[in-house]
Amino acid sequence: MIFSRQGKGTTERQRLVDTREAFNLWNILRSKYLVVDKLHIWQQVVHDKDYMIILKGLIKALKENISILEQELKTYSITAPDRHRAAVSHPGTVQMLTDEFMAQETFLYLQEHMENLLKSFRTSVTNDALRSVFYKMLLKTIAEEDKFLKYIKAKGWVETPPLYRSTPPGMAERLSSVEAAGLWDHLTLRYDNIKTTEISISFAYDGDFKATLYGGLKTLKNQAKTLEKELDRFGIPLPKRSGTVSASPSNTDFLSDDHLYRTVLIGLRAAGILHAQTIKESTFNDRVRSIFKKMLVDELLYTDNYYRFGKLKGWLNQAPLYGS
After folding, report:
1. Between helices 128-154 and 99-123, what is the axis angle to 10°?
2. Which of the two ends of the chain, N or C, has the fewest CB atoms closer than 10 A to its terminal CB?
3. What is the domain range of residue 298?
4. Claim to verify: residue 135 and residue 193 sit in the same structural domain
5. What percent of the chain has pLDDT over 90?
6. In whole angstroms, what is the distance from residue 268 CA to residue 260 CA?
7. Across the strands, what pairs with 321?
8. Under 8 Å CB-to-CB from 74, ≥6 apart: which residues?
9. What angle, 0 to 180 degrees and rounded to 10, lies between the N-to-C axes of helices 286-313 and 128-154?
10. How confident is the model at residue 233 (pLDDT cuts 50, 70, 90)?
């Protein structure tokens, strides 16, 4: 599908941010200040040479993002959070902190930061340029988290969660119980979203909107097929599917296109949250995790384009602006 990247009157709005976007900028910058302080302390006591290299890379990437965020706050006249004190290690720190503990804490930060960036991305509606900043940082964090997970797995610093016990006989590939649940949850959501999209197509009037719905329906069905194959592969029972919408409603006036658009948008936001939570929990089967990761990345791009489409049509409610 092709979406316009800029609607009528949006150029002026890109010089503004809304109240939620102002907080998003402040909050993400604050979290990066905190973790840089923590990593500087750990850098003084780490033993593992590979982890030292990773820490240096993370600190460099964080400082680059901090510079970007500080400039964004300056651009929109938003007061920045306090910078914290220079990191100084305590004499007892060396004995108290192990490489494994620090690495697990680093991984936990990357997981939580991914979710925080996702929240900032999906709630930054007014300013497309600012949402793009969060989008790029989120993609980078997803890649960093994935790479770091492989490192701590190679070191043996990731515990094996409960495994799914009902795989078919002779099946060599295993997955954790939460990964099995994630596959099932994703397919259930796809079935519900397919049904909602089919209903929306029946009521939609605007031709451009219908085109986006048909495109989204095709994507949902393709993703459902991928997930069905995975559930069948691991012997996971499939959820019940709803019947297809066959009858056209006699009266479509009581559901407007803008309401249908916002209903679909809610589904996109919910899918993004589910993808991120599942990636966070899926630490055992790398192949299955990559499926969830791809779906999240695809969802981010589609959501960004869908915001732009809604603004073009005037179907997004304007959030309160920060300043004037």
Report:
1. 160
2. C
3. 177-313
4. no
5. 73
6. 13
7. 18
8. none
9. 180
10. very high
CATH number of the domain where residue 41 is located: 1.20.1260.10
CA pseudo-torsion sign 310, 313, 317, 320:
positive
pLDDT band at 96 (very low <50, low <70, confident <90, very high): low
Relative orientation angle of helices 257-281 and 207-233, to the nearest 10 degrees: 30
SS3 (DSSP) at 316 = coil
For residues 37 and 87, the answer to whether their CB atoms sit within 8 Å is yes
Domain total for the chain?
2
Q: Give a yes or no: residue 4 inside a domain.
A: no
Torsions phi, psi for 241 (to 5 deg)? -100, 145
The sign of the torsion formed by the CA atoms of 131, 136, 141, 142 equals positive
> How many beta carbons lie within 10 A of that of residue 245, not counting itself?
15
CA 101 to chain centre: 26
Letter string b/e over residues 28-54, b meaning 16 or more CB atoms within 10 A of that residue's CB: bbbbbbebbbbbbbbbebbebeebeeb
Asked whether residue 192 is assigned to any structural domain, the reply reads: yes
Average per-residue pLDDT in the chain? 88
Say whether pLDDT at 5 is over 90. Answer: no
Q: Would you list the DSSP string of 166-225? A: -PPTT-----BHHHHHHHHHHHHHHHHHHHHHHHHHHH---HHHHHHHHHHHHHHHHHHH
What the block records as the tokens of 272 is: 């993004």
Q: What token pair was written down for 190?
A: 């796809």
Q: What is the pLDDT of residues 145-201, one digit of tens each?
A: 999 999 999 999 999 999 999 999 989 999 999 999 999 999 999 999 999 899 899
Phi, psi of 185 (to 5 degrees): -60, -40
Say what the pTM is: 0.88
Q: Which two tokens stand for residue 251?
A: 């009266």
Using the structure block, give the residue that is written with the tokens 């994630």: 182
Do residues 124 and 20 touch, judged by C-beta distance below 8 A? yes
Exposure of 61 by Cβ count < 10 A (0-12 exposed, 13-18 middle, 19+ buried)?
middle
CA pair distance 172, 99, nearest whole angstrom? 32
